[in-house]
Amino acid sequence: MMFAGFVLQSLLNSAIEEVGMLKFGLQIPWFSWDGSPANHRTVLKDIAQAAEEAGFSSLWVMDHFFQLPKRDPDLDMHEGYTLLGYLAGVTETLTLGTLVTGVTYRRPAVLVKQVTSLDVLSGGRAYFGIGAAWFQREHEGLGIPFPPLRERFELLEETIQVALQMWSDDDGIFKSKHFTMQETICSPQPLQDPHPPIMIGGNGEKKTLRLVARYAQACNLFGGPQDIKHKLDVLKTHCATEGREYSEIEITRLSTASPGSDFVAACKAHEAVGVHHMIFNAPQIDTLEPIKHFGKEVIPKFR
User: Which H/E stretch holds residue 229?
Assistant: First the structure.
């Protein structure tokens, strides 16, 4: 049985030095398994350790409070950073992140502290995945403000600016359109130098990819190879405008690995247009069979 799905990873201090070596990530987006929720900690540990043994580079979770509409919002969903903290404790090498955090869910300083703690306690394995947020029902259901899209993009850029100041030697005042902070203290600082890589999720050509070019060390895209090729051409243009080296940005791709698909061919097609890290989720991941398949039949072909 063959599987298909994708995305990438790259750290500031390893920015794509392994030319031609495609990386693989595993996303865990649902938790409604037999025996739930009493067995969650055991199943999650088994999944994470199997992924590590199979040769995956990264492990990802969604940052939501309701399960997504295409499934059922009443199904199980864990808080993202609590879950990543647990996964950090049962793994040694996998990099860890949300794919991606909605900027509306937490005050910027609180979010930066969560990511920093994850980085320190995992031994320097955290990503800072962030995006403009979209799940309106979740916001309204839990009483989380859901401003218009334009404002969410303002919040996104300002939150990244808060993170960069908190991860610097400047612990003074931060003031922007939406946030005022008197002391941007963040102690301890992250283990990664200068900070965990910032991953911005989304395909938007005018705003999202411009922010990637300005601030990010990684982006997360969706679509087929030709769609992604077009987005990367747009990103290169933004990088030129921002005076940024395009090669500093890791390109990731997320998808679902469906039984019967030729995953190796799909990965090669995405690698050919510039994807560095393929991240996938798969049905029946709790059986560990998709993970074992990747470890035996897919990952070795890219080593």
Answer: helix 225-242
Token digits of residue 202: 């989304």
Pairing of strands 23-28, 95-102: unpaired
**Hey, how many other C-beta atoms are within 10 angstroms of the C-beta on 188?**
10
Give the span between the Cα atoms of 140 and 92, in whole angstroms.
38
Residue 74: half-sphere exposure toward Cβ, Cα within 13 Å: 0
Instruction: Pull the structure tokens for residue 85.
Output: 């903290």
Contacts of 158 (CB under 8 A, 6+ apart): 108, 176, 177, 178, 179
pLDDT tens column, 134-186: 999 999 999 999 999 999 999 999 999 999 999 999 999 999 999 999 999 99
CA atoms within 13 A on the CB side of 175: 2
Q: How much is the pTM?
A: 0.90
- Residue labelled with tokens 């008197």: 182
Q: Which residues have a Cβ under 8 Å from the Cβ of 32 and sit 6 or more positions away? A: 67, 75, 76
The single-letter DSSP state of residue 123 is: T
* pLDDT digit string, tens, across residues 114-132: 999 999 999 999 999 999 9
What CATH number is given for 12-302 in this structure?
Answer: 3.20.20.30
- Give the pLDDT band of residue 21 (cuts 50, 70, 90): confident
| Cis peptide bond prior to 264, omega within 30° of 0 | no
Residue 39 CB: number of other CB atoms within 10 A? 14
Single-letter residue type at 272: A
Domain boundary assignment for the chain: 12-302
Average pLDDT, the chain: 91
Q: 167: helix, coil or strand? A: coil
Q: What is the DSSP string of 29-51?
A: -----TTTTTTHHHHHHHHHHHH
* Nearest Cα to Cα of residue 29 among 63, 1, 74: 63
Q: How far apart are CA 190 and CA 167, in angstroms?
A: 7
